[in-house]
Design a protein that fits this description.
Blueprint lengths: L1 H18 L12 H4 L4 H8 L3 H14 L3 H29 L9 H15 L4 H4 L5 H22 L3 H19 L8 H13 L4 H22 L5 H12 L20 H20 L24 H18 L5 H20 L12 H19 L6 H23 L5 H12 L3 H13 L2
Length: 443
């Protein structure tokens, strides 16, 4: 219990410190919907989607519609809650895992380092400092809750508790979908978790539960569809893939000025995701980009050639994770969680902006845990180097936290912010227009 309190404090204070210099930062892009005269309840009536996210913005608007701190502190609090949920799920998972000794500190160290890595990782900045992307972090919160209560339901011995936990899990999925549609992926994510850590690769046992899990998911989707056009959106996506070489058009989720085809979108995303994964390992501030609207399109599998290399890289990771899932369960879980989590916005809902780093937020919750767990379990047998290895993780966390803190400084000045985007993306019209507006406003 004392360890848990220590972990919560350390995770929370670490997240607060690395984002403390961005709490009074600028408004950017569609943040203008939140603060400059647009009524959030009007937006809710028009959109009928993401109602829970907009309700949180409505609360902020009623408190003070023009105060950035008012909005950003809630974003940061959600991020802190998510980081602690990563700790809790990681700890329970490791504690319940059969092949780990129960009388040592492995579960605590794995859970703490996983959560700290998620809390301070620079790749999460755009989901925390970019106010409107509270939608992504809020949806992630409910997805993590759905997984957590699904675990509680499986661990419960009393039937009433089991039913109660399953119900909370289903309600969390619905709440997530009403925050952002990426929460529909909670269903395959729960299936992935169950197969590895609950069913423990017992296919017969897993198949018995498969129908039940899918029933919970379908029920959640049906209820969510009362507010979100889930079935209509699915039908529109299917129709796009039936015309895979035809330019995308006339879809309500499309980015501005989409000119590419579904196939080109998918091919490009292999390069985009490869870049995301590079940033996960080397999240240098000079490589992080707020907006990359003009990300180069992959016209074919070999134009550019890097497309083919990226396809091989991504498919190799997925194939490795599937083949080696029993030998490296945690690493495989992390990789598969990442690709499942990012699939909707990258490979399914084609026509969205090609590149946005905030899309890594939910994927990183599982990837951080999977990689840290596998690394620590692999190296723990060398007891004499145990604390030296922990020191290495501490140094990495401090380094990542420092880069997050440094990167967040650009959020304090509009001109600096948009110049940063323009320098990194060349002829991107969005930052060019925004920079012109900012320069005019500031004289």
């Amino acid at each position: 219990m004392k360890q848990d309190a220590y972990a919560v404090f350390l995770i929370s204070i670490s997240a607060f410190l690395v984002y403390s210099n961005s709490l009074n930062g600028i408004w950017a892009f569609d943040d203008i919907l939140i603060n400059y005269g647009t009524s959030i309840d009007q937006i809710i009536n028009i959109s009928k989607t993401r109602i829970i996210s907009y309700l949180t913005f409505l609360i902020n608007q009623k408190i003070n519609a023009y105060d950035q701190f008012n909005f950003r502190i809630l974003n940061l609090l959600i991020h802190i809650v998510n980081s602690n949920l990563v700790y809790l799920i990681s700890f329970i998972t490791i504690k319940n895992y059969d092949n780990i000794q129960k009388d040592n500190q492995i579960p605590f160290y794995i859970a703490l380092i996983s959560a700290l890595l998620f809390a301070v990782h620079p790749l999460n900045i755009n989901a925390v400092s970019y106010i409107i992307q509270r939608m992504a972090s809020l949806a992630t919160l409910f997805v993590l809750l759905s997984v957590l209560f699904y675990i509680y339901a499986n661990n419960a011995t009393e039937m009433t508790k089991k039913i109660g936990f399953y119900l909370i899990s289903a309600l969390s999925i619905i709440s997530g979908i009403l925050s952002k549609e990426i929460a529909t992926l909670a269903i395959p994510l729960i299936l992935l978790y169950d197969y590895i850590f609950i069913s423990k690769f017992d296919k017969k046992y897993f198949l018995k539960k498969l129908l039940f899990i899918c029933s919970i998911g379908i029920a959640a989707l049906i209820l969510a569809s009362l507010f979100v056009p889930v079935i209509k959106s699915a039908a529109e996506i299917i129709s796009l893939f039936q015309n895979i070489n035809k330019p995308i058009q006339n879809r309500n989720w499309l980015a501005a000025d989409v000119y590419w085809t579904p196939l080109q979108h998918i091919l490009t995303e292999f390069r985009v995701i490869s870049r995301y994964l590079l940033l996960f390992i080397f999240p240098l501030p000079k490589l992080l980009v707020f907006d990359y609207w003009n990300y180069p399109i992959s016209k074919t599998m070999f134009e550019p050639v890097s497309t083919f290399v990226a396809i091989l890289f991504v498919l190799s990771l997925i194939i490795f994770s599937v083949i080696k899932i029993k030998k490296y369960p945690f690493l495989s879980f992390g990789i598969l969680w990442y690709f499942i989590s990012i699939s909707l916005e990258s490979f399914i809902a084609v026509g969205l902006d090609l590149y946005f780093e905030h899309r890594n937020y939910m994927p990183l919750t599982g990837l951080c845990f999977g990689i840290i767990a596998q690394l620590i379990l692999f190296s723990w047998k060398w007891l004499e180097f145990r604390y030296a290895k922990l020191l290495v993780f501490i140094v990495i966390l401090i380094f990542f936290g420092g880069m997050t803190f440094q990167r967040n400084f650009v959020w304090n000045d509009k001109i600096v912010f948009w110049k940063d985007v323009l320098e990194k993306t060349g002829d991107n019209p969005r930052p060019l227009i925004a920079l012109g507006n900012s320069s005019y406003t500031h004289g």
